[in-house]
Each structure stands twice: as structure tokens, then as C-alpha cells.
Write a structure and sequence with these properties.
Blueprint: E1 18-22, H1 26-37, E2 41-46, H2 51-60, E3 65-69, E4 82-85, H3 90-103, E5 106-109, E6 122-126, E7 129-133, H4 140-154, H5 159-180
Parallel strand pairs: 1-2, 1-4, 2-3, 4-5
Antiparallel strand pairs: 6-7
Helix pairs in contact: 1-2, 1-5
């Protein structure tokens, strides 16, 4: 019988970490925004970068947000403490994972939780309180519901995250429909 994978909620100072985010979709945007609030330096690599990333760069400065409008190529993970693979190409995500494993870099692959060294939680913040919510399986709906209850209890609401989650849900549904129809035209859009 296979043992269930369980993740320990580990809160750590990441202000000196260098993080590479490969992809520039909604998930990458949401995670980049969260990392920046904790003082992390983030490099975003994607052929097409949303205007929201440029707004983050204007808000936090080029020292904290480096935007590289190009495709991921082998070797790009060198020098980073953490890598987030959030492309819309499973093949690209897998090659990023392989490179990170080879070099001992912590990696999170948004499209495949089995390839994650850590889980990226839903974050709820109020004053000096930080709550992270995730699940040991892939029940995103349950995480959203629990997060909403905690936000309600704390009297806080993060409209940007809520909006991003709704948009992410719409994009995921669209991608599922495209894949079931055998279409793969958007695969390289955010590599």
C-alpha cells in the first residue's frame, strides 16, 4: 500500500531568496504577487508577459521584479533558490522539474502536484497574521472554501486573489475543453 504524501506547513523567511517563475499566466501572476509581499526577488520568464507583471515591476522596482520576455531554455534555473513552473506546456514544466532535481533546486510545478517539492498555499493576511491553506490532495475547491471562511473570520478580503482564482478557474475549464477537443495551439504561449 502506497503511503499518502503529507505536507508540513513550514513558514520561513524568504526575503533573501531568488525565485524564478517560468510562465506568465494567472497562476504565475498570483504566486509572483504573493512572493513579492514577502520581500523575495523574482525573475519572470515567458514569451508573452501580461501588463500586470509590469505593474508589479513598477510597484516593487526592477531590483525585485525582473521580466525576461523569452522562452525557457536549459540552464535558466542556475543561481535560483526556488523555481516555479507555471507554463501551459506539461513538457516544458517537466523539463524544468528535471533540471531543478538535477541541481538540487526546490521546485513547484503548477500543473502536476506530484512534481512539487512544496505546495504553494492560498494566503490570507491581516495585520501581522499570515495564514496558509493547502490540501494534501488536489481539492482546490475545498481550499478556496476554507480560505474564504478564514478571510471572513479575520474580516479581510483579498479581491485580487479572489478575482485571480475565478479567472484561473475559467482558464482551466477552457484548457480542459481545448485538450478534450484535441487542440493544443496555446501550448507555447506562456513557456
Amino acid at each position: 500500500m502506497e503511503k499518502e504524501q503529507r505536507y508540513f506547513p513550514f513558514f520561513v523567511d524568504i526575503s533573501e531568496y531568488r525565485v524564478l517563475v517560468v510562465g506568465a499566466g494567472i497562476i504565475a501572476l498570483r504566486r509572483t504577487s504573493a512572493l513579492l509581499r514577502f520581500g523575495t526577488r523574482v525573475t519572470v520568464v515567458a514569451p508573452d508577459i501580461r501588463a500586470e507583471f509590469q505593474a508589479l515591476q513598477a510597484q516593487y522596482g526592477q531590483e525585485y521584479v525582473c521580466l525576461q520576455q523569452k522562452k525557457f531554455t536549459p540552464g535558466m534555473t542556475n543561481g535560483y533558490d526556488i523555481v516555479l513552473a507555471a507554463t501551459d506546456s506539461p513538457e516544458t514544466d517537466h523539463s524544468i522539474w528535471e533540471e531543478c532535481k538535477k541541481h538540487g533546486i526546490r521546485v513547484s510545478v503548477a500543473s502536476d502536484q506530484t512534481l512539487c517539492d512544496f505546495r504553494f498555499p492560498a494566503l490570507i493576511e491581516k495585520d501581522n497574521i499570515v495564514v496558509g491553506v493547502t490540501s494534501n490532495d488536489s481539492d482546490h475547491r475545498n481550499v478556496r472554501e476554507i480560505s474564504a471562511r478564514i478571510r471572513e473570520t479575520l474580516g479581510t478580503e483579498n479581491r485580487n486573489i479572489d478575482r485571480a482564482e475565478k479567472q484561473d478557474s475559467k482558464e482551466s475549464e477552457y484548457q480542459r475543453k481545448e485538450m478534450s477537443a484535441g487542440r493544443t495551439g496555446s501550448e507555447e504561449k506562456n513557456q
